[in-house]
Amino acid sequence: MHKSNRYTAAKRLDRRDFLANSCGILAASAITGFGIRSSAAADTINIGGLYPVTGSFAQIGQGCVNAAKLAVQMVNDAGGIKSLGGAKLNLIVSDVQSDPTVTRTETDRLISSYRPAAIHGAFASALTLIASEVAERAKTPLLTGSSSDQLNKDRRYTFTPFSRASQFALAQLQMSKLVSDQPKVAVIFENTAFGTSTSNGLREQAPAQGVEIVLFEPYSAGLSDASPLINKVKASGANMLFPVSYLNDLILIIRAIKQVDLKIAINGGSGGFVIPDFYRNVGNAAEGLLGIAHWNHDINENAQKVNAAYQKQFGEFLFEYAGGLVAQTFMIADALERAASADPQKVRDALATLEVSEGYAAMCPGGRVKFGPDGKNIYAHPVGVQWQRGDLATVFPKEDARAQLIKA
Amino acid sequence: MLATLAQAVVNGLLIGGVYALVSIGVTLIFGVVKIVNFAQGEFLMIGMYISFFLASSFGIDPLLSLLISMPCLFAVGVLVQHFLIRRVLALGDMPQIFLTFALSLLLINLALLLFTANYRTVQTPYSELTIHIGPLYFAVAKLIAFAIAMLLSGLLWLFLHGTDLGKAMRAAAQNREVAMLMGINPDRVFCVAVGVALALAGAAGSLLMPFYPAYPLVGQIFVLMAFVAVVLGTLGNITGALIASLMMGIAESLGVQFVGADSGLIVVFVMLLLTLALRPNGLFGGWAR
């Protein structure tokens, strides 16, 4: 359920979605215009990107689109798809607006109007589940960084190159051992579907990892003041805190901890915790905080190269989800190259037999990609990250660590 | 244990000061103009954005920008009263409810359009500062917010009791017709009342900015508490709203501490239900305004 927190938050904010929807018609026509203009060249292969570029996730969605464009440009600059006479990739972006209904119609529209060879998207797990159903029926391959384990059930056309939600909880528990030999963890979580399922996952796996949970506390999302909650954490005697929260509550929680001068290690998990916006809002107080990611920009040389290009163009580091979909674009290119065809069925078959351990397509934690029969990358695992000097550094597991863990 | 209890009371009291500014505004408008302003939280949101942009563009401290956000929102209040509320005053409850509710929706969506849904925070030197007194700690930003909120409430009380305009406002609140017969111009009084109420919401926004993120829906978090406080403290009663707000802040904090973090509000609403059942006019129903 890793990505779904962003989505849950959107569901909470129905009114803002309403606005997003009412602007949708305008936005959709604008994006269609973009597609038609850039598909004018003869030797191009359409690939689709489903991202929320208006509405509550606009900023993150826009980051994904920027990364996707950069990736397509990289493939094209390197000569395109050689087995197809150097055909160029043409990215068609469709705005899913953080809305399940819009996601369904947009995915349908994208596939029927442009016949893309493959699609990637759609950021939030709940949206990706819908997009993958539509893609399944239309027999079009979909790659995604979304982590819901449900995406690997009864799907033939969905491929997930990165770690699954169930792996995130395990990694988060194991990381607490880095901070203390006897981790005493306080879990505070918003009482939503996302908060409850994530925290239950943590609680179930904790005993096997030798982690003691001393406080397990649901709270109502949308805090007006986090100090009473932090007062409770303080009283629990925990040495590690797992907040399962959306950004506005996280900001209050972290500030309240600083105000009480509570010395406690914090692991905020994934989602809103590992994007540049988090640091912009929390500032110096974010230094030293831990998180989990399915991708990070320092995992290998290629990732660092792409990150540098992205940073130069957009002024912030390449975040987890956006970085992962650069790798996905290269996986699609690899499949196209071997299939020597832009037919979605043939591309799907080529993805099913994909096996890479070098180049941009293998730019993942572990450095290898091979999909099992359920569409899961059998080598995928998450990495533990830490905010260090405004940047996100990989510190866990040992074989992926690129920086020393800074202890408080 | 005692320290935890005392700390919970302190936490509740400090945030109660912010609730008070919002609820006093609601109750002032209700008392004088006899209209429920559902958009009060959105004016707090506007106050926050004013402070945010002044801080991020010109480096003005959010507490200083109080001096800008309050007059701005006063002016907005006068305009809202003159061009919107005045036109529906004679039409009964429904159009009035629709008007302020629509205003709330409009402002939220305008904010989404203009400022996006992103969270905006301001870092001040005192954002994470605390004062320790014995085992208790006081967050400086919240302490300042509380102190200024109390100061503004006191000034409002002086204004209502010590100036002609304030007295006219109370007269109009007590009996509009008789006040008109005494030569009080209700339009003018109403404009000032709405202006002052919105200025208080703007002040709450500026005071929140050093420790709370701004986003288009932020008003909704505070306005709910404000409405409960207004009812608890008797509609139209300013002192009642102030005391009820502080009580609710404390009740919420104690609820989080001793009942459960997802049930802090339950304590508040149990208080509300009991009050409505036992004293339907609110806790301060018999008090003079």
Q: Mind explaining what this structure looks like?
A:
- The complex is a heterodimer of chains A (408) and B (289).
- By secondary structure, chain A is of the alpha/beta class.
- Chain A folds into two domains: 4-163 and 300-370, 3-Layer(aba) Sandwich (Rossmann fold); 166-293 and 383-396, Rossmann fold (3-Layer(aba) Sandwich).
- Helix content of chain A is 45%, strand content 16%.
- Chain A has helices at residues 4-12, 14-22, 24-38, 58-77, 100-114, 125-137, 165-179, 193-205, 227-236, 247-260, 276-282, 301-314, 320-339, 344-352, and strands spanning 44-51, 88-95, 118-121, 142-143, 158-159, 184-190, 212-219, 240-244, 265-266, 290-293, 355-356, 369-370, 383-388, 391-396.
- A five-stranded parallel sheet of chain A has the order 2-1-3-4-5, with helices on both faces.
- In chain A, β3, α6 and β4 (142-143) form a beta-alpha-beta unit.
- In chain A, α13 packs across α14.
- The longest helix of chain A is centred in the N-terminal third of the chain and has 20 residues, at 58-77.
- The two termini of chain A are 29 Å apart.
- With 289 residues, chain B is mostly helical.
- Chain B is 73% helix and 3% strand.
- Chain B is built from eleven helices and two strands.
- Chain B has one domain (2-278): ABC transporter involved in vitamin B12 uptake, BtuC, CATH 1.10.3470.
- In chain B, a hairpin with a 2-residue loop joins β1 and β2 (136-139).
- Chain B has helices at 2-33, 40-58, 66-88, 93-115, 140-162, 164-174, 176-181, 186-208, 218-232, 238-258, 264-278, and strands at residues 130-133, 136-139.
- The interface between A and B is large, with 42 and 47 residues.
